[in-house]
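Data card: per-record layout.
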Amino acid sequence: MLGTTILLSLREIRRHILRSILTTLGIIIGVAAVVTMVTLGNGVTASVQEDISALGASNFIVFPVRTTRGAIRPFDDADVRAVEQQIAGVKIAAGGVGASATAFYNGQDWDTRIEGGTNPLLEAQTIKIKEGRPFTRDEEEAGKNVCLLGLKVRDEIFPRGTSPVGARMRLGGVSCQVIGVMEERGQGGGQDDDDVVYMPLKTVQRRFRGNDNLDYFVVKYDAAYAATTIQDALVDLLRERRLLQGTEPNDFNVIDTAQINQALSAVTGALTAMVAIIASISLLVGGIGIMNIMLVSVTERTREIGIRLAIGALAREVRLQFLTEAVVLCALGGLVGIALAFGASFGLAAVIEVPFVFDPVINIVSFVFAASMGIVFGYYPAHRASRLDPIDALRHE
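The structure for this 397-residue chain is written out next.
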């Protein structure tokens, strides 16, 4: 019975193909909009999480700030060692400094960022070596002129297809030997983390900065410990070392990368949900269109309904036929909308440079919701058709 009813519904849809397409347009647009917005929202969330992960998971980033005392007071290596040795749960504490210079190699030049750090800093920030090797202990302690290249720097100054490992290049007026190339890191903290050259901390301090100060340090903590407990201990220790009195504000900031990740993910999730809800309004509009066209169909086929009722068809069979037509229309619109959303999401993700994250749940939910719109908005026309009087229906012109 149900199979025959579906075949009859498809036949009626095919008989009025243009009207059917126009009727389902609201459903198609609604489903496509919702799925596209959610897919792009998932991509943006994944992109944000990737950016934050470039700073390292379960990390605190500590840097000095200006207060009413005046000039910014930098950190030094003693601060970092105290944090690593005196706070339970701290696995790594490593400082870093930054500078800028022009990289030169074989007539090619590129303005880039220089980061001075150690192997523990690379480990804390989950920076991996794609080609070559990390710093040796002797290179770190002696401050030798060796460097690790980001992919952007490698691609800009070295010939395509050649390995830069072992080559000598210049950073400003400093000659250095390339010992490795870092894996792709992408965007992080509003900057391109592939457009960077890493050198030993002491090298950058001596050759580019002229002092032993640290711009920041990274604290990697054990995830088994409460982040708030470690952060409180970190703040207390630094206030003690920097001789800050009880009422004085901190002259440093502590950023928890895990909290940033959670906060940004919550914001992007809320924005995605809001946009999806707005886009779903077109589904309601489409449902109203389905109801309208089904009422027109009932009026057009009044005589047909009368004949069916006169020869013995039950009211529930007539109701089922028209209800099935509405559900099939909405289901077909949902399928077309999902197909359009797949193509639109894939293209837009490439344009705005976020990953394409296919979510089967939202696609299935959107299809089921679209089909259910046929039941909600098709029931009244179907019920009206089943309540027609056979005699009056047969007289209808």
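Known properties of this structure: The chain has two domains: 2-50+265-395, 74-241. Residues 2-50+265-395 form one domain.

See the next section for split statistics.
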